[in-house]
Amino acid sequence: MISILVVDDDAHIRELIELYLSMEGYKVVQAADGNEASGLMEAHSFQLAIIDIMMPGKDGWELCREIRERYAMPVLMVTAKGESEDRVKGFQLGTDDYVVKPFDLRELILRVKVILRRSQVNETGLASVGGVKLDTRTMEAVWNGVTVTLPLKEFQLLFKLASSPGQVFSREQLISDIWGIEFDGSDRTIDTHVKKLRKKFAGDPPPFEITSIRGLGYRLTGTADD
Description:
The chain has eight helices and twelve strands. The chain has helices at 11-23, 34-43, 60-70, 84-93, 105-118, 152-163, 171-179, 189-200; strands at residues 3-7, 27-31, 48-52, 75-79, 97-100, 126-129, 132-135, 140-143, 146-148, 168-169, 208-213, 217-222. Helix 2 (34-43) packs parallel to helix 3 and helix 6 (152-163) packs across helix 8 (189-200). The protein starts with a strand and ends with a strand.
């Protein structure tokens, strides 16, 4: 079962979010502030964090930064502020999506489902190519028995490409599926992440090749036996 951490200092909002998420079959764990959330993340595994920005003590910005540094899980930010600079700051910190209070809980559920789908979080989220095994449940990439540490977006990009070897994905499609349609950065972000993946999985031969298709996008093919 997919487990979601909901962090908000408003108990009423936490209860409402848990009610709607539970009706969709998700397991929900609540935290009243960032410090409590940090403790829960050390003790439990979550596939998504829904975080309020304005909280006493450790606020949502600080908590989001901590998640990006230590955990491989997507983040949905919830805030009463709607200024564009807050949205930009959230995406710069690695937020996967952003909703503004007051929000429609049905919209929140749809956004949760989109994030989880982009993250390839499911009960059988496995992919394998060229001896590299990917598991979305643990967000781990294992190559010849050795775990290769990947930031969340690199893992998601590799999983997306490895799940459909030989298929060409445009930069726009990869940005939309992994970063979200509201991503404000350049589509050259994909190029940077591809370069990092090539470097981390360099070999003679490498386990796979990520090929740039001029004018189209990227395609992954395996080059070693599984």
